[in-house]
Amino acid sequence: MARTAAGSHGSSLSRRESLQGYIFASPWIVGFLLFTAGPLLFSLYASFTNYDITSRMDWIGIRNYDTMFNHDPLFWKSLRNTLYFVAVSVPLQTAGGLLLAVILNRRAPGIRLFRTVFYLPSILSGVGVYVLWMMLLSPSAGLVNLILSWVGIDGPAWLTDPAWTKNAVILMKIWGAGGMMLMYLASLQSVPRQLYEAAELDGAGKLRRFWHVTLPMITPVIFFEIVTGMIGGFQIFQEGYLMGYNNDPGAPMNSLLFYNLHMFLKAFKVFDMGYAMAMAWFLFLIVLVLTLINLTLSRFWVHYEGGER
Questions:
Q1: Residue 261, Cα to own-chain centre: how many angstroms?
Q2: Which has fewest Cβ within 10 Å: 79, 213, 281, 294?
């Protein structure tokens, strides 16, 4: 009888503690339901309607998705532009950030100043950066083409030639690789010295020590930067919107019409919000699938301390 009473008391105490926990967590729960889960579910429903933001919201089934895949050539154009940007910029930013980190991972006079200088571009943002790069990439008066002319190279029309516009944006992104550099620098400095000493005793040179010691030890950071860089790459928008030729978003010839820009124009220029939400959910599926692929492949090349993968 006493044991039953004790059990009932313990159960009551547990329920009271759980209730108190839910009460303390309730602001977050309410915020999540109102500002995250609610809008997500609404956008999923709206992707099957002809929602125009103002008055119309009729159920049309999969018509938005049919239009997207079969009747909108700009959808495929914007998707190709974005895939090209992600496929080229993410590896180059990763390699550039790692190279900078390796160069700056040494003791030398003024090294902290150099680290700060290389990191500064990553904290600059906004319209000013895009205006600066539009001036630097000017075909006639830009500093980039001027420097190329010094070595006998006739610089391209970066932002007016459709064949070069995406490469111009990628160049600008590599300039801001200081954020990645800082992450790699921290990971390089956390590699245990005894691993290098052991490899050196075995006769490994600098290149072999880097390949067999340094790279495996920092693969978790490389993996993190690749995944986050890929997700960020699919979200590219401002560059195409602000750097389009003659202030025309995506120009010239839709070469800067990235996926998010096309979605934005559909939502807020022609007010086809239902179609834009269908595009948003398809983008979500693309990013989800690519992230799952990266997570699956990571077990073959990402090494964690203790030998776990």
A1: 15
A2: 294
